[in-house]
Amino acid sequence: MYNEKLSRRFRELNYEREVILNFATNYKLFGLRGRMLSIVFNHQSNGKVLSLSRSWNRVILQTGFESKNWQVFLRPWLRLKDADDENPAIEDYTGRAEAVVIYNPGKHQLSVVITHSLRVKNGGRGSIQLSWVFPVIKNFRGQFQVSDGYGETLMDYNHRQTTFGLSVSLVEW
């Protein structure tokens, strides 16, 4: 935050709007209880002018499971093509599906988010994000996060990056 060349201005802000139709469920599959099914219309964009603009639309199917301290979400999607393809082959980098696994041991939370292109060529690109949320005092919580792969930002969706983050939260979501 003290490096003017790298940190003074925001290089990019990504926006992700969605409309979700969610259905509560209650069934068992592989020892997990199915709790929800959703269909999502998702628009993600960076709000830049045309030469730097990046956006895409997706229809996402989502299902959520739980068992004691575990939650699992599976999210495959289909990209909706548009006339002006601002990010060719984005699915080959950021993926066509996502799996989220969350474990809550006591007051801590460990999670992993994995995206994958579902294609074998080019090594099957995607990303992995590991997070640890931990209590500090009362409702004050800290979070450490590390991610590696593609799609950290829309501007650089086709460049592999490794990032580390440390943050705090005053409210638990």
Description of the molecule:
The chain has 173 residues and is mostly beta strands. It has helices at residues 4-7, 90-94, and strands spanning 15-29, 32-45, 55-67, 70-80, 97-103, 109-116, 126-137, 140-149, 161-169. The model has no long low-confidence stretch (mean pLDDT 90). Helices cover 5% and strands 57% of the residues. The chain has a nine-stranded antiparallel sheet with strand order 1-2-3-4-5-6-7-8-9. 13% of the residues are buried. It has a single domain, classed as Phospholipase A1 (Outer membrane phospholipase (ompla), Chain C).
- Strands of the widest sheet, in order across it, are 1-2-3-4-5-6-7-8-9
Radius of gyration: 18 Å
What overall geometry do the principal axes of the alpha carbons give? Answer: globular
Please report the distance between the alpha carbons of the first and last residues.
26 Å
Report the sheet with the most strands, covering strand number, pairing sense and barrel closure.
Answer: 9 strands, antiparallel
Decide which structural class fits the backbone.
Answer: mainly beta
Average of pLDDT: 90
For the record, the CATH architecture stands as Beta Barrel
Strand element count: 9
Q: Portion of residues in helices?
A: under 10%
Run of helices and strands: HEEEEHEEEEE
